[in-house]
């Protein structure tokens, strides 16, 4: 069965109403990374970091998966599919994707500040400042901050290397090591990029098709094409 690996970024959720990071109206235009997304910020300014992720989590309860998430989930009816996402939202899972690897963590989980393996789900949107893990340590968002290692990266490279077709949706390909996943596709494997902007596709050495469309338009059309051509 043809193996399709779908690698997604913030743009796949943009059509659900979630802000991207680096577009002109993106999150990093309104927040400084060093204030909300570094281990130092968590020490120096715990309240602001937790508030930032509480806002992101609250937003998640008010949005729905879009046609791109649904088209990606639907591919599982026809192909062997794995999703690797940089997103911390849960919209792929809510659309029905069953194999999703989160490179940068998950909003709906917290973890112990002492033991990174002690990961717990959070029910609602709000992490209180004094919430503690079972080991007594304070809980922190289960997010990979800038400057931290990406524990799921090795697993993701193996997934990328297993692709017969790679689809890249809505990522600027600006953040490493995540962006380098596209280099793990085997030689000759076709790579489709769905993005209305100008992601850094120069680093992709494989046969490349850039579909310059919003995810909610381009992804269903691409899914239909692949189903017709490869099924
Ligand atoms: P970026 O904000 O860097 O890039 C978003 C991409 O989505 C751009 O290429 C846009 O052109 C594209 N885009 C915008 N609207 C779109 C739409 N409607 N449909 C499809 N594409 C659209 O986001 P990421 O590449 O995901 O990390 O950023 C990577 C990482 O940087 C994130 O995981 C996050 C961030 O800092 C952490 O927080 C650790």
Written description of the protein model:
This protein has 231 residues and is α/β, with parallel strands linked by helices. It has two domains: 139 residues, TPP-binding domain (Rossmann fold, 3-Layer(aba) Sandwich); 80 residues, 2-Layer Sandwich (SIR2/SIRT2 'Small Domain'), CATH 3.30.1600. Helices cover 31% and strands 19% of the residues. The chain has nine helices and nine strands. It has a six-stranded parallel β-sheet. Helix 6 runs parallel beside helix 9. The longest helix has 16 residues. The radius of gyration is 18 Å and the shape is globular. The chain binds 2'-O-acetyl adenosine-5-diphosphoribose. The site of 2'-O-acetyl adenosine-5-diphosphoribose has 25 residues, from helix 1. The site of 2'-O-acetyl adenosine-5-diphosphoribose (OAD) has 25 residues, from helix 1.
CATH architecture of the largest domain: 3-Layer(aba) Sandwich
Bound molecules: 2'-O-acetyl adenosine-5-diphosphoribose
Assign an overall shape: globular
Secondary structure: number of strands: 9
Strand order of the largest sheet: 3-2-1-7-8-9
CATH domain class name of the largest domain:
Alpha Beta
Give the tags.
single chain, 231 residues, alpha/beta, Rossmann fold, SIR2/SIRT2 'Small Domain', 2 domains, 6-stranded parallel β-sheet, 3-stranded antiparallel β-sheet, 31% helix, 19% strand, globular, binds 2'-O-acetyl adenosine-5-diphosphoribose
Lay out the secondary structure.
Elements: E1 3-8, H1 11-14, H2 27-30, H3 33-36, H4 39-44, H5 46-60, H6 67-74, E2 80-85, H7 91-95, E3 100-102, E4 105-112, E5 119-121, E6 139-143, H8 153-161, E7 165-169, E8 191-194, E9 208-211, H9 215-230
Parallel strand pairs: 1-2, 1-7, 2-3, 7-8, 8-9
Antiparallel strand pairs: 4-5, 4-6
Helix pairs in contact: 6-9
The chain binds 2'-O-acetyl adenosine-5-diphosphoribose.
